[in-house]
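From the thread on structure requests for the teaching lab: each student submitted one protein with a one-line request. Submission from student K.M.:

"Model Phosphate transport system permease protein from Pseudoclavibacter terrae, tokens only."
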Amino acid sequence: MTAELAPDAGTSVKAKSRPGDRVFSFLSTFSGSLILAILAAVFFFLLFQGLPAFFPDAAENSHFVAGASNLAEPEAEGNFFWYVLPLIFGTLWASLLALLMAVPVAIGVALFITHYASRKLAAPLGYVIDLLAAVPSVVFGLWGATVLGPFVQPFYVWLNENLSWLPFFQGQVSATGRTILTAAIVLAVMVLPIVTALTREVFLQTPRLHEEASLALGATRWEMIKMAVLPFARGGMVSSIMLGLGRALGETMAVAMVLSATGVITFQLTSNTNPSTIAANIALSFPEASNLDINVLIASGLVLFAITLLVNSLARWIVSRRKEFSGAN
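Reply posted by the TA:
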């Protein structure tokens, strides 16, 4: 009886192809290609439809672009750049304020769930945080406009009376509380579950041996977190923050319902003069738009698309540098 010879180490053995494998391979390739095709279709639609807004002669016929002259710039009349600049500022400013409020709370909640809370408490708390992501943005907008705004308005008055030497709290205080700071608080609540969930998963993937070694050397729990958990999770934390930023940049209805915008560039947080965001401006202006006004709004959507794509690409690049974060690779 002849013994079968084992294949050489240098030769590759091709697995037998089954119908199920071929179907799965086709569906996977088709799904990945479809995503790229949809992304490219959205980009080219925004580009071709928004292209007329970038030509000064055509943009002069849009009353949206003509309204950019409130920036007190001599060349602002009929210039799309001066129209979209306050919207870019408002989008980035509101998102930055939201992250400043949401990120410390999200990291603290994630640390509490993973390293301090008991198992009976950690699981329900994690479910509650995850459920916040399922709440529609319209609900957050109603809450911010009808509850949060009137609630924080007296606090805005106190800030204006006692801290008016800071440029953030100068100007006429809003009587309704519907300011850029209120919109940022609503965005912070909406971003919180995303940053918390991703950061929690990063913390859970810290090697157990690293934590036990730190504790065995006499470190306290906080010292163990500072030396073993946070350095390991740095890349994942940054990526979760960037993904939360992408969520805040594209939020529409909540900001449109809460913010009482005037379309200017200002750092004042409690006054009745507030910048608008690109998404909120499109939602509020599109129903009454016609002709070139539609092209101007689509062009501003192209700008938002580019900003969001840049933020998410940067987040993915940061995640890819951390091989330990296998959940995102």
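TA comment: The chain has one domain: 84-328. The two ends are 49 Å apart (CA to CA).
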